[in-house]
Fold this sequence. Notes:
The chain is an alpha/beta fold. The chain has helices at 5-18, 46-60, 87-94, 99-111, 119-132, 145-159, 167-175, 180-195, 206-212, 251-256, 273-282, 298-310, 324-337, 347-353, 362-372, 381-390, 401-411, and strands spanning 27-30, 64-68, 77-82, 165-166, 215-216, 221-225, 228-231, 237-239, 247-250, 258-262, 266-270, 287-291, 316-319, 341-342, 358-359, 392-393. The chain folds into three domains: 5-94, Arc Repressor Mutant, subunit A, CATH 1.10.10; 99-216, no CATH class; 221-411, Dna Topoisomerase Vi A Subunit, Chain: A, domain 2, CATH 3.40.1360. It contains 17 helices and 16 strands. The strands form five sheets. Strands 9-6-12-11-13-14 form a six-stranded mixed β-sheet. It has a three-stranded antiparallel β-sheet with strand order 1-3-2, covered by helices on one side. Strand 11, helix 11 (273-282) and strand 12 (287-291) form a beta-alpha-beta unit. It starts with a helix and ends with a helix.
Amino acid sequence: MELPQLAQAILHTLLDRIEQPGRRQVARLRLSAHDHPAYFSAEDATARRDTNAALGQLARQQVLALRWRRWEEGNWLDAVDLRPEGVGALYSLLGRAPRGEQEDALRDLVAAQTPRPGWHAAFLAWAAAQIDAHRAAPPLDRADLALSADLLRALAGLADLEAPTLERALSVRLFRDSKRLAGLRPGLLRVLRRHAPAAALYGDDDDALLRAQQLDRAPEYVPLAGPLTLVSADGTPLALSPFAPSLALPAPLLRASRVREVAARAIVTVENLTSFSELCTLRPPEVLAVYTGGFASPTVIGLLRALRGAAPGSPLWHWGDLDAGGLRILRHLRAALGDVRALAMDVAAFEAYGAAAQPLTAGDRAGLQELRADPLLADCVGLLDRLLSAGAKLEQEAVPASAALAALGARL
């Protein structure tokens, strides 16, 4: 029996209702213009006629009981009941397994996983508890076991990463399909946001959250400028000073290299590329600049730790946006590295360049309010209060690099 799309939706909804744990009432669906606009369309009666015909055939087979509007029998349905004796036939017609069978199959999939410490184990334990309680365990889907199996494989692969890995490379490794992992990305992010303890650090930056788990969409290059000499794995020295205004190094090279010398009075990380480029054109020789591109990646964090170890007397500064996102990036650096000072991210900078400020959204305001209570940003409360009182935020690009360098020079 070929079913129209609307009829299929109605029948699936009836089965959803009959499957509700502890349900003792008849499964009934009342049609409404809000939930079923095609049925009540004034321009095209095709959906209504086809749905009436399909449901009418099932009613004659004692699968359904149809309730028509008064004086409109055979024309306008008011409600549809699923007869208890018709449940089995409806499962067969829709090619759908009963909920109990779906839950058992999904439970087996979850139980077959090997929990990795941290967010992966937490997610698997939560999912198992949800299934046992007859509740949904998103992004897993009991009605789509193939999708759920792929998600579980992707989550395990993500949890196993120990070094930065490209998304398409991991996708081929797991699925022999370079694009499959991209389709599972929303599910991966949903799990991380609910179960990864540090997920809140990254706000709504999906790429940064996945990068923190060592998953990259594209190869990473880190722009640098200043008095730094590295030594590669084969012993080759690489001095940055001759390269002006900056040099971008591939992340694998940075991870495999060690710091030989840092002749810098200050190390400055910069959130945005335009500001980094402007700073590099004006940079004094004794300043080492490192581009973060938003949240610092594991590679950049590793480099900054090595720089701090090689030059413990060189203070580390961060220059970024004067908004919730910029302050979250500063907080992330402090959580990973300890003492990181804010550069040109204060009330003075906002007052000097506030003519270029933009209004806060409701999300911006909520984010700023949340950050006020963060002990890692205690020295930024004055800026947070000023942004909230002004109802505005300021992009880093509005503050000239010359002003940032002047502020740096005054503190060295």
